[in-house]
Specification:
The structure holds two protein chains of two kinds.
Chain A (H helix, E strand, L loop, with lengths): L3 E4 L2 E4 L5 E7 L5 E7 L5 E9 L2 E4 L6 E3 L9 E3 L8 E8 L9 E2 L3 E5 L1
Parallel strand pairs in A: 2-11
Antiparallel strand pairs in A: 1-3, 3-8, 4-5, 4-9, 5-6, 7-8, 9-10, 9-11
Chain B lengths: L2 E5 L2 E5 L4 E8 L6 E6 L5 E7 L5 E3 L5 E5 L4 E6 L8 E8 L5 E3 L3 E6 L1
Parallel strand pairs in B: 2-11
Antiparallel strand pairs in B: 1-3, 3-8, 4-5, 4-9, 6-7, 7-8, 9-10, 9-11
The chains are: A mainly beta, B mainly beta.
Chain lengths: 114, 112
């Protein structure tokens, strides 16, 4: 089955701790994205990557970091600098298709602070 | 900059009634527009997309949307609501080849 796998489904962070959210895709897509979702605010872009070994900050990158060492993987680290990390995190991928930009989403990771 | 505004954060309809979700866009170039649906604790699923072909776009699960340039709108409709349509719906506009800008979402509840 082709798709996007996010893990874990639920994650708890202690004060001062860094945590890493996993995102893997087997759709052979070039581009991958991380979004944060808070109630009533829609989706906000954290980081995106158009190609391996390259990524760009989105609208709310502060307190987050990413890497893109492999085409199929785009892990997100929530650092201790992110003071309000409780949210639902969604990973997505897309092919570069002349701007049509259909994004396919994983099932999400819900992060809470202990 | 490209953006979308969804009018109404919550919509409640009776089963069998018309579903109408409103989305207005702002774009300096011909836009690509999308509607996504999200069921509780899940990711987003594409319902339909507009990419400058036909102005009336048909999607999955009986939904359709009409692109109206004069009104800068891309409203989503379904003639007859089903209980399974209860979800959150997001309108989005393509900012460039890679970025999407999402609206705040509209939650639909369906009354039996």
């Amino acid at each position: 089955d082709g798709g996007i796998t996010q893990s874990p489904k639920y994650l708890f962070r202690k004060e001062g701790q860094n945590v890493t959210l996993s995102c893997e895709q087997n759709l052979n897509h070039d581009a991958m994205y991380w979004y944060r979702q808070d109630p009533g605010q829609g989706l906000r872009l954290i980081y995106y990557s158009q190609i391996v070994n390259d990524f760009q900050k989105g609208d709310i990158a502060e307190g987050y970091s990413v890497s893109r060492e492999k085409k199929e993987s785009f892990p997100l680290t929530v650092t201790s600098a992110q003071k309000n990390p409780t949210a639902f995190y969604l990973c997505a991928s897309s092919d570069h298709d002349g701007g049509k930009n259909i994004q396919y989403f994983g099932a999400g990771t819900r992060l809470s602070v202990l | 900059a490209q953006s979308v505004t969804q009018l109404g954060s919550h919509v409640s309809v009776s089963e069998g009634a018309l579903v109408l979700l409103r989305c207005n866009y702002s774009s300096s170039v011909p836009p690509y527009l999308f509607w996504y649906v999200q069921y509780p604790n899940q990711g987003l699923q594409l319902l339909l997309k507009y990419t400058s072909a036909a102005t009336l776009v048909k999607g999955i699960n009986g939904f359709e949307a009409e692109f109206k340039k004069s009104e800068t709108s891309f409203h989503l409709t379904k003639p007859s609501a089903h209980m399974s349509d209860a979800a959150e719906y997001f309108c989005a506009v393509s900012v460039n080849d890679y970025k999407l800008s999402f609206g705040a979402g509209t939650t639909v509840t369906v009354r039996a």
